Amino acid sequence: MRHHTTFRQLEIFEAIARLGSFTRASEELFLTQPTVSMQIKKLTDTVGVPLIEQVGKKVHLTPDGRELAQATRDIFAILDRYMMNVAERKGLKQGKLKLMAITTASYFAPRLLGEFAKLHPGIDVSLRVTNKEQVLASMADNLDDLYLLGTPPDEIDVVATPIMDNPIVVIAAPDHPLAKKKNITLERLAQEPWIMREAGSGTRKAIERMFAEKGLEIQPRLELGSNEAIKQAILAGLGISALSCHALTLHQPGQFAVLDAKGFPIQRHWYAVYPAGRQISVVARAFLDFLLGQRGESSCAPGGGEACCGAGCGKAGGSLSVKR
Ligand code: PGA
Questions:
Q1: Residue 8 CB: number of other CB atoms within 10 A?
Q2: Ligand 1 in contact with 312 (CB < 6 A)?
Q3: Which ligand 1 atom sits nearest the alpha carbon of residue 197?
Q4: Residues 6+ apart with CB under 8 A from 172
Q5: Is 102 in the pocket of ligand 1 (CB under 6 A)?
Q6: 167 lines ligand 1 (CB under 6 A)
Q7: Minimal CA–CA distance to 296: which of 171, 202, 163, 170?
Q8: pLDDT tens across 83-134, in order?
Q9: What atom in ligand 1 is closest to the CA of residue 103?
Q10: For the purposes of burial, counting CB atoms within 10 Å of the CB of 119, is it exposed (0-12), middle (13-18) or buried (19 or more)?
């Protein structure tokens, strides 16, 4: 049978089996009815048993015909899978990956993207680091493949996958009087001059929520739009702050004191996010899998002032649909 049967014949047979009609099969395949009939006759001759019985206009498959219909569907499913694998490999050889990351994610996103780009040198990668407003605008216009955020947005339905821990720790200059204290209360911390991120920052919201739960409010002494500026202000002795542990990446141990404060670190996550209902690209899916495969330990221990988050500040798993 293998030497005489063509894929065209099997395709025609599958269409007749599915649609129950020679006419509809010929329409679907853009063939004339005589062509369809002739190909089915050839197929039947090759197999050597009746495959189709026609009673008036009605078409029935014989038991042998039903078995061939199943075999045909199996063959086509295997071929479809094969073609998908080829497309996937092709995609990973020459695709594009457009990422957008919120401000604080800039401490780890370039490193991860760099490692991914090394694994897939043919992929053209881009990363934009920006604020929340621009992230929302880009999502609404479907401009980027994936977004790395500390807080999945309320405004848009998204699929958010936690990819990494994001502990928020209180930091001070190493010679700060609280640097050697244990179990510092929130009441005590609230008395310190604080240096805060701008309104709208996810880090700032998390800190304010933590104090508000205890009925406390922080009066910021300085409000600065970047983690780097905050670190400079801390070193200049202007006050204390709380930052993502990732913001201390690349600092020498001892450069900052991580305070032993009650309720800290605030345990947050980093998320890879895309709009719900969007079919993400093969490349974006591969990057997401790569992110989930990364593991690392967070080491923002209080006390001496650790440089932290060497490899990746811990890994989270699973995926959640965030609908609002
Ligand atoms: P940022 O970080 O807005 O404080 O830069 C993102 C987040 O933690 O939500």
A1: 14
A2: no
A3: 4
A4: 178, 179, 234, 240, 256, 257, 259
A5: yes
A6: no
A7: 163
A8: 777 877 777 877 889 999 999 999 999 999 999 999 999 899 999 999 888 8
A9: 5
A10: exposed
Q: pLDDT tens-digit profile of 215-247? A: 999 989 999 999 999 999 999 999 999 999 999
Q: Is 320 helix (H, G, I), strand (E, B) or coil?
A: strand
Segments in 191-278 forming alpha helices (H): 202-213, 227-235
- Encode pLDDT of 61-72 as tens digits: 999 999 999 999
What is the rounded (10 degree) CA torsion for 240, 244, 245, 250?
-90
Instruction: Quickly list DSSP for 97-127.
Output: EEEEEEGGGGGTHHHHHHHHHHH-TTSEEEE
Tell me how far apart the alpha carbons of residues 25 and 18 are, in angstroms, rounded to a whole number.
9
- Say yes or no: CB of residue 197 within 6 Å of ligand 1: yes
Which residue in the block uniquely carries the two structure tokens 């009650």?
262
Ligand 1 centroid to Cα of residue 89, in Å, is 35
Atom in ligand 1 nearest the alpha carbon of residue 151? 9
- Which residue reads 């499913």 in tokens? 77
Omega before residue 162 within 30° of 0, cis = no
Contact 82, 75 (CB under 8 A): no
